[in-house]
Design goal:
This protein is mainly α and about 140 residues long. Helices cover about 100% and strands about 0% of the residues. It has one helix and no strands. The protein is rod-shaped and about 200 Å long.
Amino acid sequence: MLPRCAQIISFLRRDAERKDELIESLKGTIKQQRDMFAEQRTHEAAEQTAAMEEMENGMRSDFMDMQERLEAAEDEQRTLRDYKDKKATYDANLAESERQRLDEEDGHREAMEAMERKFFEEKAKLQKVKLNKLQQENLFF
């Protein structure tokens, strides 16, 4: 019976060694897989971080562009509002200037007509004086 027991013990030892080797092999495989998964997670995290940074940069750029466009629109709106506020004043000033120009034009025309009238009256007076002188001279001759 002893040889049979020795065979069984020997078999069980070999089986235990084989199982220990299998366990060590599986532990190695698990460690390799853990390392591979850790590396893969690190790689994926780096890719996600890069993608997020790229997206943030794009969004920041878009935001800045939109902010510049908004500021330009606000400036244009402010300019238009200022123009609308000042337009009534400009129109009133223009109407006043036009009225003054017409008044001055009328004044100049009246002054010109008065000078022409005075000129013609003076001319007629001088002609009359000359005619009287000529008539008096003709009487003496």
